Amino acid sequence: MNNDLLHQYKRIRLQSERICSPLGNEDYVVQPIVDVSPPKWHLGHTTWFFETFILKPFASDYREFDNQYNFVFNSYYETVGARVIRTDRGNLSRPSVSEVFRYRKYIDEQMEHFLSNTSIDEPLRGTIILGLHHEQQHQELLYTDIKYILGHNPLFPAYSVDHEFTKPATNNETPKVIPIPAGIYEIGFKGDGFCFDNECGCHKVYLDDYTITSTLASNREYLDFIHDGGYRDFRYWHAEGWDWVKTNKVNAPLYWHFIDGAWMYYTFKGLKHIDLNEPVCHVSFYEASAFASWKGKRLPTEAEWEIASPNFDWGQRWEWTGSAYLPYPGFKKAAGAIGEYNGKFMVNQMVLRGASVATPDGHSRNTYRNFFHAPHQWQFTGIRLAE
Amino acid sequence: MNNDLLHQYKRIRLQSERICSPLGNEDYVVQPIVDVSPPKWHLGHTTWFFETFILKPFASDYREFDNQYNFVFNSYYETVGARVIRTDRGNLSRPSVSEVFRYRKYIDEQMEHFLSNTSIDEPLRGTIILGLHHEQQHQELLYTDIKYILGHNPLFPAYSVDHEFTKPATNNETPKVIPIPAGIYEIGFKGDGFCFDNECGCHKVYLDDYTITSTLASNREYLDFIHDGGYRDFRYWHAEGWDWVKTNKVNAPLYWHFIDGAWMYYTFKGLKHIDLNEPVCHVSFYEASAFASWKGKRLPTEAEWEIASPNFDWGQRWEWTGSAYLPYPGFKKAAGAIGEYNGKFMVNQMVLRGASVATPDGHSRNTYRNFFHAPHQWQFTGIRLAE
Amino acid sequence: MNNDLLHQYKRIRLQSERICSPLGNEDYVVQPIVDVSPPKWHLGHTTWFFETFILKPFASDYREFDNQYNFVFNSYYETVGARVIRTDRGNLSRPSVSEVFRYRKYIDEQMEHFLSNTSIDEPLRGTIILGLHHEQQHQELLYTDIKYILGHNPLFPAYSVDHEFTKPATNNETPKVIPIPAGIYEIGFKGDGFCFDNECGCHKVYLDDYTITSTLASNREYLDFIHDGGYRDFRYWHAEGWDWVKTNKVNAPLYWHFIDGAWMYYTFKGLKHIDLNEPVCHVSFYEASAFASWKGKRLPTEAEWEIASPNFDWGQRWEWTGSAYLPYPGFKKAAGAIGEYNGKFMVNQMVLRGASVATPDGHSRNTYRNFFHAPHQWQFTGIRLAE
Amino acid sequence: MNNDLLHQYKRIRLQSERICSPLGNEDYVVQPIVDVSPPKWHLGHTTWFFETFILKPFASDYREFDNQYNFVFNSYYETVGARVIRTDRGNLSRPSVSEVFRYRKYIDEQMEHFLSNTSIDEPLRGTIILGLHHEQQHQELLYTDIKYILGHNPLFPAYSVDHEFTKPATNNETPKVIPIPAGIYEIGFKGDGFCFDNECGCHKVYLDDYTITSTLASNREYLDFIHDGGYRDFRYWHAEGWDWVKTNKVNAPLYWHFIDGAWMYYTFKGLKHIDLNEPVCHVSFYEASAFASWKGKRLPTEAEWEIASPNFDWGQRWEWTGSAYLPYPGFKKAAGAIGEYNGKFMVNQMVLRGASVATPDGHSRNTYRNFFHAPHQWQFTGIRLAE
User: Fold this and answer.
1) Backbone torsions φ then ψ of D207, nearest 5 degrees
2) By CB count within 10 A, which of A55, B11, D198, D384 is most buried?
3) Helix axis angle, C3-20 to C97-117, nearest 10°
4) Confidence check on the interface: ipTM exceeds 0.90, yes or no
């Protein structure tokens, strides 16, 4: 039964462990900033999803792996016994890495048994598929968080000296400006496959005439912005962005280091010279917006991006848009815990569109709505301009 | 010359001082939270606007009132001589209230002389008009900030025991649900009069079918929300809103106090019992949104509000919308300091539409885009629902 | 009856108001940092002491002035009605300055009536005397807090352009080094007059041979320390002191400003050039200790200071000692609220000995134990060296 | 050559690794609070001491292990290349645990070679001995930090289910009150062996008559304090202690948990019921002082403790004294980096005397001056009373 689903389950679950394979045990544990979770937490949390939403409610003979894992791998784990213990994910040396892998193995065996022997109805199938997409989201976070952990170590250790993403980041296309005529368009997900709830419902929007660039802003252009005093002129910045620049003494994208007269960049292979032809990466919304302002242009809205997207290559960088993350017309939260997935985050964040070199294969759609806070730099973020 | 402008100038400038007339000297000085400025700062800052943008550049014979007032009444005043002095507006006992009034008198005489004797071209006229609208914005802030200062004093002093706003707050209308058909609409300012830069340009939007209520949510309905556990059930709240509720132990709108078994409300006349028929006031975006969610409805977008607005009475409360504060298509910042007026705040704030009982006469338009951060309660904010 | 006490009461109470006489109304209100209280709070709080500890419990016919003043003028005023209002002293525009003066007048009349018509036993007399010394402590705080309020205003307003303290600050004495032989000495208060509880009990200490300087460190010497890189060399500083220097970018005593190539100093007369012969003032314990370390010397202990004090003039500056503020042998807290006066502060503070130009006449003793936290600069503090 | 020293070196260095032997790799990495360092940091830092102060300056043929370890294992490691990277010890996944052990092995071989082949003069010998005592201090910190790391994990993992300290903690002695007569006494280190610079110089003190208890306060007595409302009555507490109780909602010593109606205590063996006869452990200075105040007694001064110490057993708990950590008369910092060892911490900390069950054998003296900040609970601290 469910051969396709089983195959898909195995493939995706394995991929999470593959991403971690170059890590040392210690790399799984630390949490240098609140946004960056320890890799072992990602491995446990995605597993907990299947245990909590599939096995416990639906597998009749299921025996819980460890009844304390719920508050370790849930998002909010504040209480134990009769006393509150405040802790952070990065303070937890236990469960150990090998225990987390045992947990994965146990859940995978149970899931495979369940998938092979159970008749699965549509809603349940939907939840399993959601769990797999959830796992894929955490695969991208594994990349970004591992990069942060190693890239903020003063020894700058490589993740893997010969690491390459499947999708190349460098861009050899000749830049073009793509014009889109005004009119009523439809955006949002429609069709049969999987989408997150925030991509629904498909709805009409009116767009004015606009143009959008066929390529992402390159490191070369971004260096021009730096050299032209972009980080020193408040006129390009939102007021909050300017505060952010001054408070954090920001003068370049994340992972850029000016060493011995040259701009270096921490990559999964270690410190390298900046590649001028590569699309700029690891910029915040504030930086993307200031760069656009310096260029005399602007960021596209998410509707503009989606409508124009068939006309350009995308998938190298998550592209900051000028749209705030808000519900689409007709958006409804699902009932129960699954309903907390997206809706409650729809305030004070900006939408990013596209995908990045770190996005798992098969996890991209041009209706996908990613979202982060304006100051965040640690994702593989980039800039496309509109006018 | 410029008789109309002169008349308008005198009327508006006088109104700021009228608002302050019930205050004691000490009330002009304090700044209980960063968002609330001391009344004397408002009086000085609006005056500084005319000195800086009209008199200094355009009145040939103008002699500056005091060369140190620039960093006292500008938004950012950090440096003096060769040493930085960090201070906050609420730490400045000088200039004294009477000195600020002398400053106003001096500038008013100079402005009246200037307006009476100078030929004023269109751009300059525009800047003067902007200064007057700026003063009117600060008139509403004078009301909200005075309310905060007195309403957070443990003695709960009245502003004036017989104070009444011109516009009554209570609502006797029978509630209706207004349906609006789907279609392309135009929003944004068009016409001849004054508008702020953020209301331009007028542009097309596509709206789906929606309904909007003809009345604001009342204290009665809001009490139902409280009694039904609205502040204790996370499902109604954005994740950030829920954090805000817990961190600040919020359990009611600002100025509500549960005393001896009854809900009291601080008003300009002192502490009063809640009037159940009045539209709820002093709620944050988080509260407005949670209330809407509890009702099974939502907040209107700003476009929906604007298109429907001819069909209902508005002007009692600034109405939170579900729209983030972002630039309209084609929005351009003005050059120079005036260009900082609005654009740089277009991130992480929500739009409010309408006007309130504290909004000066002649300062309302249904294209007006007010904006505050999601947790802010100290403005005269209220709730209208859509579906 | 009680003529002496009555006379003393009137004289001391009047002096608090005299100190405030040059102030504008607005100067009474602000609280620029948590340590600096608004002058009107000092005036109310010292009055509240007499109302709370004398009139309410002992004056049979006493009618409370205002039953809400208890939480306004007590040290901890957090609750009103059924709801907690968090506020700070500097956010309270009411009671107004004139109301506080009416409060003082009312209490003074009641106290004078009480003193004139009541037979007062020894314990009660002790509490009244304590109230007067308490008022004198706040007189010095009025000076230091007014200096902070005006001296941190970017306009640098003078308190009074011809202000002089009774005691001159400048020192014309030839410096000497005073040797004190080892032996058992007695320190602490003994005798008949008033002392605070922390000066008891008188007890024996053993001191080794030591020397102490007859004069305070001058601005000239302190400038040498600055020019010699004193604020840039961590070796002179406690670890916490060095953190304090770096975090706060401290490079001179409080109120020093380097303007147009010269060191200026804010005084009650306004900004003046540094007087090189004056004893340095407004230094923290960290600075006093680093200066001593740079000189190859140390600060005296409080016992060394007290034993040597008959051999030198003191009273210009509160002199930082190397002693932590701890209970003397045999120290007992008094019962009741008065017992909170001193004992509960005996941790993490340093002892200062002597008195300053701002200390009221008749309020000095060589057994007096003043105490502040190590980073505090806003008192009239200075440095005497030992070896 | 130097056989004794070599033997001692090997024995002490081995002991640090023995303490860590029950740990999993992940336990070496985390830093749950700033005071608690990751075990691998302790292992590296103590090794760095020998590399930096012995091998680099004195071993002519020495080749540095890794030139980046200096900023990893020094106390302050802020810079790399041309850019500052801010990080905390607990964010460093590299060097890995096995690399740190390789570092230890390398340094140990080099040190053993050095000690076996070099003639060592007195000052150098002193530095080596200091390094060994430094290592022993970190051995106690390894115990306290490991306890914190495991004891704050919601799984409450045991360090080792059959762990016992050499010194038993339980006390079977009948309590006595020991009287000490007034007089001049001598305190501070004298003699030939090792001592830290803060124990010098030996000096006279005068002590009044006092008594001191022969036993430490027990869990039974401390529970009486809790049951009698000790944590709810401000009168027992310093003002700062009371703030600490309220802010942190403290209601018991560290590691105490009230679970299902019983007080449990996290130990190296896991969660256990409180042993009423054991001396109370993991209390702050604030708690020790409040407990003493509730008993109508006080903490001894460090001089009283030292003089009385031959009359009672000590070594189970570090005993809070009523003395602030200040220099002894005649104290001089050593020149160079070694001079930073103790002196710069002599402000705002309290002295603890004795030793604890976690103190290494041979590392105790009755002149030893340990010191921590008043709120610290994570050391093996206890309470002895005086009067």
Assistant:
1) -120, 135
2) D384
3) 170
4) yes
E-assigned strand segments in D107-251: 177-180, 183-187, 203-207, 210-213
Distance CA C133, CA B248 (A): 40
A187: left (phi over 0), alpha (psi -120 to 50) or beta: beta
Residues of A in contact with B285 (CB under 8 A): 347
- pLDDT number for residue D76: 45
Residues D308-312, mean pLDDT to the nearest whole number: 97
What's the whole-number mean pLDDT along residues A68-79?
A: 65
Task: Please give the Cα distance from A289 to A245 (Å, whole number).
Answer: 13
Q: Where residue A85 falls among pLDDT bands split at 50, 70, 90?
A: low
Contact between chains at A90 and D90 (C-beta distance less than 8 A): yes
pLDDT tens per residue, range C333-355? 776 667 767 889 999 999 999 99
Q: How far is residue A248's CA from residue A237's CA, in Å, rounded to a whole number?
A: 15
Cβ–Cβ gap C152/B257 under 8 Å: no
Mutate to test the interface with A, among B347, B350, B373, B376 (most CBs of A within 10 A): B347
Instruction: Give the model confidence (pLDDT) of B253-312 as tens digits.
Output: 999 999 889 999 999 999 999 999 999 999 999 999 999 999 999 999 999 999 999 999
Q: Please tell me which of the candidates B323, B339, B347 has its beta carbon nearest to residue A240.
A: B347
Q: Taking residues B92-104, what's their average pLDDT?
A: 97
Quick check: C31 contacting B, CB < 8 Å?
yes
What are C78's two structure tokens? 């957090």
Over residues A137-151, mean pLDDT? 97
Q: Give the homologous superfamily in CATH for domain C177-382.
A: paralog of FGE (formylglycine-generating enzyme) (3.90.1580.10)
C188–D contact, CB cutoff 8 A: no
Task: State in words which class domain A3-151 has.
Answer: mainly alpha
The whole-angstrom separation of Cα D122 and Cα D194 is: 12
Q: Do B239 and A344 make contact, defined as CB atoms within 8 angstroms? A: yes
Instruction: Name the residue type at position D49.
Output: F
Query: Cβ of B201 under 8 Å from any chain A Cβ?
Result: no
Interchain pair B91, C152: CB under 8 A? yes
Does the beta-carbon distance from B204 to A206 stay under 8 Å? yes
Give the length of chain A. 387
CB-based burial label for D2 (10 Å; 0-12, 13-18, 19+): middle
Q: Are strands C318-324 and C381-382 parallel, antiparallel or unpaired?
A: parallel
The answer to whether A263 touches A352, Cβ cutoff 8 Å, is: no
Let me know if the fold of A3-151 is the same as that of A177-382: no
H or E stretch at C230? none
What average pLDDT does range C159-173 have in this prediction? 83
What token pair was written down for A161? Answer: 């000296």
Identify the burial level of C185 via C-beta atoms within 10 angstroms of its C-beta, where 0-12 means exposed, 13-18 middle and 19 or more buried.
middle
**Which residue carries 């032996």 as its tokens?**
C183
Cβ contact (<8 Å) for D85 and A31? Answer: no
Using an 8 Å CB-CB cutoff, list chain A residues near D91.
30-32, 90, 149, 152-153
CB-closest option in B24, B71, B91 to C93: B24
Instruction: Answer yes or no: are the C-beta atoms of A377 and A253 closer than 8 Å.
Output: yes
Subunit contact C347:D205, Cβ cutoff 8 A: no
Nearest to C324 among D237, D324, D339 (CB): D324
Neighbours of chain C (3+ CB pairs under 8 A): B, D
Sign of CA dihedral D61, D67, D73, D74: positive
**The Cα angle at residue C50 between residues C49 and C56, in degrees rounded to 5:** 105
Distance of CA D103 to the CA centre of its chain: 25
The whole model's pTM is what?
A: 0.95
Of B30, B72, B264, nearest to C93 by CB-CB distance is B30
Could you tell me if C93 lies within 8 Å of chain B, comparing CB atoms?
A: yes
